[in-house]
Amino acid sequence: MGAPPGYRPSAWVHLLHQLPRADFQLRPVPSGFAPQEQEYQQALLLVAALAGLGLGLSLIFITVYLIRFCCCRPLEPPGSKSPPPGGGCVTWSCIAALLVGCAGIGIGFYGNSETSDGVSQLSSALLHANHTLSAIDHLVLETVESLGEAVRTELTTLEEVLAQRTELVAAARGARRQAEAVAQQLQGLAFWQGVPLSPLQVAEDVSFVEEYRWLAYVLLLLLELLVCLFTLLGLAKQSKWLVIVMTVMSLLVLVLSWGSMGLEAATAVGLSDFCSSPDTYILNLTQEETGLGSDILNYYFLCNQAVSNPFQQRLTLSQRALANIHSQLQGLQREAVPQFPSAQKSLLSLEETLNVTEGNFHQLVALLHCRSLHKDYSAALRGLCEDALEGLLFLLLFSLLSAGALATALCSLPRAWALFPPRNPSALYSGSRLSEPLLPARLEPASPLCSFPGCRRRPH
430 phi and psi, to 5 degrees? Predict the structure, then answer.
């Protein structure tokens, strides 16, 4: 089974689908989408665990770097006023890393929006498919009830009126049998009636999960944006307490970024496996959940010339029966009305019911064609496998840029705030300035020898 005509796997799907997979014992796992199998679940968990490995390596690198910075700094000579070499480069590298993080935040907002658009397209397609299936059930129920009412009232009354003419009663009973046959054939067209799987419920569940996913990513993006902005503000104001607080917050956001990266990577890989060949999995899952025959599901999911309409025989029989009813009513109109004028009302009511039934029948023919439901199926796949997958890749890029920028900032911030000048005014007189005289040279104290009256100081 190939992909439906309205959907073709993208290059990203092919690329991600070709990535090797392995379980926890590092044994190769086929790339076919099989979420119910334990080996495939382990393969996706292993992909997510790579982000955990990256987080661990980042924390080890940052810890070793900071320990080396704190313990292996060269001692500054007393009274040295010049900043240590490379201080400006450290500050500017931190600023550059934070600006890269801000650019990654913009990419994250775009990816979050694309993912939301893809899921919204999926929900809209499910809702439209639910509307089509509900319309089929409603038309079938309305038509069957209308025919049943006509059989119970108008045709029964007509038979009583024409009781004196045996051949006319036989024609009325023939119309009754044809109407009952049409009702029986039409009841088999409501194939989704009584099915436990509801596209409406699936769309509501998908929208519910997507709403919280979108909100969680917006909060993560805003949190990282605030951390970057306040860190830049702390560097500009040379505020040690603000930079220290933002350093702790950067560590928290770094952990969240690596965690989101693992989730995004595993989801993207699993989605690429699904999108590479979605028909087989969807057909098997739908048949398992609904109990429908494979001929019906193949017709609507594939919708090509190789699969015939499973309702074609019922539609043909119904159309022939409606034509027979129409001809029989016309015959009764010519033969019975001149002799039994009271039959006119019943015949007109039957003609009206027949016209309504024929109108509903033509609507059913259009709705039962695979074109409408297959269009919804293709739209759902495009939303999930194109927009949503593209959004996930942009979110993955955001997490990667965020992790790199925050790791660089965490290495640079301690060195940057160590270069800030002290804020305590008493520190201005520390160090070598304690040896300088606190009074200006012009305010030298008088000599004790000239403290008595009449003493004159000799000029220097």
Answer: -85, 165
First to last CA, the chain: 112
Residue with tokens 């900032």: 409
Burial 366-386 (b: 16+ CB within 10 A, else e): ebbebebbbbbbbbbbbbbbb
Report the C-alpha gap between 392 and 441 in whole angstroms: 72
Quick one: residue 155, left, alpha or beta (phi over 0 = left, psi -120 to 50 = alpha)? Answer: alpha
Q: In which band, very low, low, confident or very high, does the pLDDT at 457 lie, cut at 50, 70 and 90?
A: very low
Is pLDDT above 90 for 446?
no
Return all residues near 394 (Cβ < 8 A) that are at least 6 apart: 107, 108, 110, 111, 114
C-alpha torsion sign, points 167, 173, 177, 179: positive
Task: Name the packing angle between helices 240-276 and 199-237 (round to 10°).
Answer: 150
Contact predicate 315/368, CB 8 Å: yes
Q: Is the pLDDT of residue 78 over 80?
A: no
340 close to 159: Cβ distance less than 8 angstroms: no
Per-residue pLDDT tens over the stretch 330-373: 888 888 888 888 888 888 888 899 999 999 999 999 999 999 99
Model pLDDT for residues 374-392, shown as the tens digit of each residue: 999 999 999 999 999 999 9
pLDDT score, position 72: 64
26 φ/ψ angles, rounded to the nearest 5 degrees = 60, 30
pLDDT tens by residue, 202-213: 999 999 999 999
b/e 340-362 (16+ beta carbons within 10 angstroms → b): beebeebbebbbebbeebbebbe
22 phi/psi in degrees, rounded to 5: -150, 155
pTM, whole model, 2 decimals? 0.83
Say if residues 336 and 168 touch (Cβ distance below 8 Å). yes
Q: CA dihedral defined by 359, 365, 366, 371, rounded to 10 degrees?
A: 180
Q: What's the confidence (pLDDT) of residue 422?
A: 67
